[in-house]
Amino acid sequence: MAAKDAANKFRDFDIIDEVICMLAETLGRSSIWHDRFHGLQEILLKTFLEMQSIFAIRWLSRGEAILRLVANLPAAVLLLHEYDTVTYEVARGYKFHFCLFFLADLLAELNRLN
């Protein structure tokens, strides 16, 4: 919870939450985009990992969702290129990647300690 409180002051961290929620909602709502995502995963990652949502009532879900985005990052960025070019431009930037991997490292450790 302390990590979440600290992250509230930085807009760059909010964008990561927004991208995760948008991807999870899109893939959960549309079988076409879900199938396209699986196709990209098969080509790029040779594995199938579902995106996870972030639940406000369960703070551990943020770390799990961020780790899942890191594992799916190549396929997720390509899907964003087709689905939402504005979000794609954000998601391919250095600042987004830095914040994503920083949070992944931090929250993975906090989840392990819990």
Keywords, please?
single chain; 114 residues; mainly alpha
Would you write up a description of this structure?
The protein has 114 residues and is mostly helical. It has 7 helices and no strands. It has helices at 2-7, 11-29, 31-44, 60-71, 73-83, 85-91, 94-113. Helix 2 packs across helix 3 and helix 5 runs antiparallel to helix 6. The chain is globular and about 35 Å long. It starts with a helix and ends with a helix. The model has no long low-confidence stretch (mean pLDDT 84).
Rg, alpha carbons: 14 Å
Count of extended strands: 0
**Terminal Cα span:** 11 Å
Secondary structural class: mainly alpha
Shape: globular
Sketch the topology as an H/E string, one letter per element: HHHHHHH
Task: Give a brief outline of the structure.
Helix content is 78%, strand content 0%. The protein is built from seven helices and no strands.
Strand and helix layout:
Layout lengths: L1 H6 L3 H19 L1 H14 L15 H12 L1 H11 L1 H7 L2 H20 L1
